[in-house]
Write a structure and sequence with these properties.
CATH class of the largest domain: Alpha Beta
Structural class: alpha/beta
CATH superfamily of the largest domain: MoaB/Mog-like domain
Largest sheet: 7 strands, mixed
Strand order of the largest sheet: 3-22-24-25-21-17-20
CATH topology of the largest domain: Molybdenum Cofactor Biosythetic Enzyme, Chain A
CATH architecture of the largest domain: 3-Layer(aba) Sandwich
Number of strands: 32
Helix content: 10-25%
Oligomer: single chain
Shape: elongated
Strand content: 25-35%
Length: 429
């Protein structure tokens, strides 16, 4: 179940402890999200080879320079004939063969047929193709068991695409069929918005890598792995940097180094009110990064802005909380739509469904809360059930979830049987 409502409290990394927050200090979630997205602009377009452009968003229309197909051709293996000169049971003279890609064409006259393969150009004197399945060939003759109609089994020039037609419009995300269509109309390269380069970095002296023994008081870093994977799922070129300790110099050097090789920096940890939360101080020194208490749970402490390093180009920076679920939810709410916006995408948010809660839940005052829920189908539609305890350190609750149920800030409880909006984390089945 959701956390018991306690006047906008946000659980910290230590179970049982809460930060007391004045509701007047909270920035409404939607206002904060609009502030973030309002400062993100799509990346400048680049020309990429087709396979590199797969999954990217077109920055220009793709226009066909010529008809596709460029010539009249056969839609089937069979016999090219003059439809007006044939009858049922006609016995035609076989005068040649035309294979796909043939440059020399054999033209059938009245009472004649030409063997033809799928995709081969239709000779000028023919206007129909009789499939091999309804014709019998022997001793240089072809006997028809069906009367062809003019145009039957024939592909007209421009049947698929007309010269000058816009086949793909700017703003479309290129799927596999789109890539094939670009090749079909003769485009080996296209102008697209590139994938954003993202560096993910966990900070904190208490963190250790997944392998090896843990020292006293240490925990394993999961956030940087989770967030890097999320960024890749969102279409970014994402990499993980090694853990950075709670040291002013080390943090400054790490952030400065990222600025020259990335479009976005995502940090996790060090943005709360603790004595050793140095991330907020260093980022503020390097740029215009602002720190906010957002009216949401989990994920109240947030940082966003731009920093300058060795590169003259500003680096978009997201400072996310250190609790695993807080970092995950913060990515979904703020970073995912920002990365999609950088790519020029229009589908910024996850798909949503309405589901009926199986059990009553409580929610904190003044905050939008996101409950991890599992979905299942019922006769009356989707139903949602919380995936157990909802603490911000319980990553297993996310693993078991199909979506995040959003409880509005003006609700402190939702009864069983009431509908909620669920942001899907998986495709519903």
């Amino acid at each position: 179940m959701a956390a018991v409502p306690r006047a906008a409290h946000e659980p910290d990394a230590h179970a049982g402890h809460v930060h007391h927050v004045d509701p007047a200090e909270l920035v409404p979630l939607e206002r904060y999200r609009q502030h973030v997205l309002g400062r993100i602009l799509p990346l400048e377009p680049v020309a990429l080879d087709l396979l590199e452009a797969h999954g990217c968003v077109l920055a220009e229309d793709v226009v066909a320079a010529a008809d596709v197909p460029a010539f009249v051709n056969s839609a089937m293996d069979g016999y090219a004939v003059r439809a007006g000169t044939t009858v049922d049971g006609a016995d035609l003279e076989l005068v040649g063969e035309i294979a796909a890609g043939a440059g020399r064409l054999v033209d059938p006259g009245p009472g004649q047929a030409v063997r033809i393969m799928t995709g081969a150009p239709l000779p000028p004197g023919a206007d129909a193709v009789v499939p091999v399945e309804v014709a019998d060939e022997a001793d240089g003759r072809v006997r028809l068991r069906a009367v062809p109609r003019a145009g039957e089994n024939v592909r007209a020039a421009g049947e698929d695409v007309r010269a000058g037609a816009t086949v793909l419009s700017a703003g479309r995300r290129l799927g596999a069929a789109d890539i094939g269509l670009c090749a079909t109309v003769g485009r080996a390269r296209v102008l697209v918005r590139p994938r954003p380069r993202v560096v993910v970095m966990s900070t904190g002296d208490e963190l250790a890598e997944p392998e090896g023994p843990l020292a006293a008081g240490q925990i394993r870093d999961s956030n940087s792995y989770t967030l890097t994977a999320l960024a890749r799922e969102t279409g970014a070129v994402a990499s993980r940097r090694a853990i950075v300790p709670d040291d002013h110099g080390a943090l400054t050097e790490a952030f400065d180094g990222v600025a020259a090789r990335a479009d976005v920096l995502v940090t996790t940890g060090g943005v709360s009110a603790g004595r050793y939360d140095l991330v907020k101080r260093v980022l503020a020194e390097m740029g215009d990064v602002r720190f906010s208490k957002v009216g949401m749970q989990p994920g109240m402490p947030q940082a966003f802005g731009f920093v300058s390093g060795r590169s003259a180009r500003p680096l978009a920076c997201f400072g996310l909380p250190g609790n695993p679920v807080s970092a995950y939810v913060s990515f979904e709410v703020f970073v995912r739509p920002a990365l999609r916006l950088l790519q020029g995408r229009r589908d910024l948010q996850r798909p949503m469904v309405t589901a009926v809660l199986d059990e009553a839940v409580r929610s904190p005052e003044h905050k939008v809360s996101f409950l991890r829920v599992a979905l299942h189908r019922a006769d009356d539609g989707w139903r949602a059930r919380p995936t157990g305890a909802q603490g911000s350190g319980l990553l297993t609750s996310v693993v078991a979830a199909d979506g995040l149920a959003e409880i509005p800030a003006d609700r402190t409880s939702v009864d069983a049987g009431e509908p909620v909006v669920v942001h899907l984390l998986v495709d519903p089945t």
